[in-house]
Structures are given as C-alpha cells and as structure tokens.
Amino acid sequence: MRRPADLVAFSKVKPGDVVMDVWPGGGYWTRLFSPIVGPKGKVYAYVPAEIAGFKTDPVGIAKALAAEPGRGNVEAISDPIAQQPKPSAFNTFDVIWTFENYHDLHNSFMNGASVDGFNQAVFKLVKPGGYFVVVDHAAAPGAGLKNTEDLHRIDPATVKAEVEKAGFVLDAEATLLANPADDHTLKIFDPAIKGKTDRFMLRFKKPAQ
C-alpha cells in the first residue's frame, strides 16, 4: 500500500517544481511527479552510480522511463551518491525524494560510500525553503543502523540525526504508512509482512537564507 495521493501531498511537489527521485526503481514516483510538475517543471530520475552495475540495469530502466511518450520533463541521471554538486547546481531543487531506499545507502553494496556526503550534497542542491523527503521501513526503536542490511530497515531517529546533521530541519512527519502490528523483526521481503511494513515519513526543510 503506497497511498500515492497522500504521499504526493506530503511531498509538497507542485506545478513548475524541479524534483529529484532518488533511486527510482521502476519509476513509480517519477511517473506520478512528472504530470504534477508539468511542462514548466522537471523530474530527475537519479540512480546512484554505486548501483548502476546491478543486473536489473537501473540506469537503463531510468533512461527508458525518460523516453516514454509524454515524459519530456523527465531526465535520467547517475552519479556517485556523495559527489558534491557544481556551484551552478546549488539551490536547484524544490523537492528531493527517496522512497524505501535510504536504508540501502548504508549497505555493503554501496562500497563504503558516504551517507553524510550524500546528505550534504542534497542540502546544497535543495533551494532555501525546499524539501528533502524520506520514506522508509522502520526498524525497532534504538536499532540505529543495525538492521539496514539483514532486514532492510532503519531507525527513524537515526535518519533524523543524519539528515539534520547536514543542515536540514525536520518540517513534518506522518504515520500514514505506520503499522503497529509490525514488530520490526522480519525482513521486509518476508511474505508475512511484505507490503505491510511499518513505514515512517519524514519531510525535512532547508532553512530560508
């Protein structure tokens, strides 16, 4: 269950916005954002370079998405997660969004890429007053990064601390995807919980300058 209308409202994406969909996968959210931002807006389907070699060919999928009819405002891009943007790209994005993948930035297949560096890069890219939205699978309170690899979960308190360290301020959190029946002990792909995990929604804001 994704509750797309509610999540789009939470994201604050609006017509004319420049948006980045981090780790777009099959392109579900990119496809939703594209008509919302419209012809005056832009959606970047961003594939971390660290996963570009996956057998699923995430870069190829993103490029195919951008080539779909009516997706003239979509562009596929791929760079290392901690690559610092050029000054010309500073303050470019209204919203940077990542859905159920932030925890993976900490995992071994990222080859030690800096998550702090990623958050710092995101902070530079977002416009003053713009947003960074993280939706992910919740780990047990206090678990920190313990279960990012085995269960594919992360403690929301850890995400808050990491993103705020980069300079963002927590603007809102929501329980639309919460599931109190999830005891946080199962891997998110387990049939008993798949699609029904306890998920948190955090919207961070870059302070106006």
TrEMBL record:
InterPro entries: S-AdoMet-dep_MeTrfase_Alr7345 (IPR016980), SAM-dependent_MTases_sf (IPR029063). Coiled coil: none annotated. One of its GO terms (molecular function) is methyltransferase activity. GO terms for biological process: methylation. The keyword Transcription regulation does not apply. Keywords: Methyltransferase, Transferase. This is Methyltransferase. It comes from Luteibacter rhizovicinus DSM 16549.
